Here is the input.
Amino acid sequence: LNSRKFIYIRRELGKKTGFYIKFKRYTPSASEALRTTMIINKLGIKYVIDIGANTGQFAESLFDFNYIGKVISFEPVTNCYNSLLKLPKKYPNLIVAFSRVNSEFWL
Here is the structure.
C-alpha cells in the first residue's frame, strides 16, 4: 500500500479527480465492532441481546462482520423501533421487540 508506484498512482488520481485517497488496513485492533464480533463468534455465542437498540447500529455491525448467531433487539422509542423494523429484511437473524426492559420485565 505504500510502494512508490502506488503512491504515484494515488497522487495522479488525486490531481485528475480532486479526491485524495488514503488506504488503511482494517484490523481487529482498529475496529471495536470487528473485535467484538470475532470474540462472540469464537466463544460460540448464539444469541446477543441488544437492549436499547436505537436504530440497530450494533446489530448491523455484528452482521456486517459475519456474526453467525441471532440478535434480539429491544427498543422502547416508537420512531427508533419503526426504523429498526426495516432491518430484518436485510438481516434475517435479527429479532425486533418493542419493549422497555427493566427489572419488572424479568419478573
Summary: The chain has a mean pLDDT of 86. The radius of gyration is 20 Å. The longest strand covers residues 47-51.
